[in-house]
Amino acid sequence: MKSIGLRCGLASALFALSAHSNAAGFGLYAVQGAGDADFTGYYYNDISMDTEQSAFGLVFDTNLSKNRVFNYRLGIERGTTSYKNADEVKLDENAITHDFGFALVREENLRAWIGPELRVAIQSGQDSSGNDWNGGSLGLGPAVGMNWNLRHGLTLFAKASLIFSYGFMDIDDYGGWFHESYDVSQRSVFMNFGVAFRFKE
User: Fold this and answer.
1) Which residue pairs from 112-116 have beta carbons closer than 8 angstroms and sit at least 24 positions apart in sequence?
2) CA dist., res. 173 & res. 139, Å (int)
3) What is the spatial distance between Cα 166 and Cα 172, in angstroms, rounded to a whole number?
4) Residues 90, 79: contact at Cβ < 8 Å?
5) How far apart (Å, rounded) are the C-alpha atoms in residues 20 and 104?
6) pLDDT attached to residue 22
7) Nearest in space to 185 (alpha carbons), one of 168, 160, 162
8) Please, how many CA atoms are within 13 Å of residue 120, restricted to the half-sphere of its CB?
9) How confident is the model at residue 6 (pLDDT cuts 50, 70, 90)?
10) Which residues contact 91 (CB under 8 A, 6 or more apart)?
11) Residue 154: helix, strand or coil by DSSP?
12) CB atoms within 10 A of CB 62
């Protein structure tokens, strides 16, 4: 029931946003990211790792093409995050991004914008030894985007963002004898490419 209520609430929120939107649209996109993360443990040594992200997502944007300054963009992503040092740990990741864009260029076939991005993510999975990893993070940073508005309501778009995030990671071994919690600070660069279909023009 909670899941149904959450879906209905999200649908209602999107409908309310679209009712006040100009050239709003829905679409699909792919994400690639890379960066580094510092793990600060309570009992064990601190760890620094390189990170890689890969995901696909659904997007809703309130203003893809109209001559208005502001746009809000919601992204819902599902993919993987890899942490690498001597070994590699690959985790499933679900993320939600919120972009608040302010136009730099507003032309008929081109819109460029800049603004802050808020990113919320959760990760889960196992390493090669069978240890369970579960974590989450909250990130914030600048984003810049560009929309190429084509005929028949089609928009191609790209976005780059630099996200500074802070979160946690809990690691438990398979037998339950080992547990460690880490504070995780992470810096990542993300690149998004996608296609959206406009309406309300």
Assistant:
1) 112/144, 112/145, 112/146, 112/147, 113/71, 113/144, 113/145, 113/146, 114/142, 114/143, 114/144, 114/145, 115/142, 115/143, 116/140, 116/141, 116/142, 116/143
2) 28
3) 20
4) no
5) 21
6) 56
7) 168
8) 4
9) very low
10) 80, 81, 82, 83, 123, 124, 125, 133, 135
11) strand
12) 22
Which pLDDT tens digit goes with each residue over 121-179?
A: 999 999 988 889 999 999 999 999 999 999 999 999 999 999 999 999 999 886 667 78
What's the number of CA atoms in the CB half-sphere (13 Å) around residue 105?
12
CA distance 123 to 125: 7
Distance CA 12, CA 140 (A): 26
H-run or E-run covering 19: helix 2-19
Q: Which amino acid, one-letter code, is at 20?
A: H
DSSP 81-97: EEEESSSEEEEEEEEEE
Q: Give dist(CA 59, CA 37) in Å, integer.
A: 27
As a 3-state breakdown, the chain gives helix, strand, coil percent values, each rounded to 5, of 10, 70, 20
Compute, in degrees rounded to 10, the torsion defined by CA atoms 27, 20, 95, 12.
Answer: -100
What is the value of pTM for the model shown?
0.86
Token pair belonging to 42? 């309570």
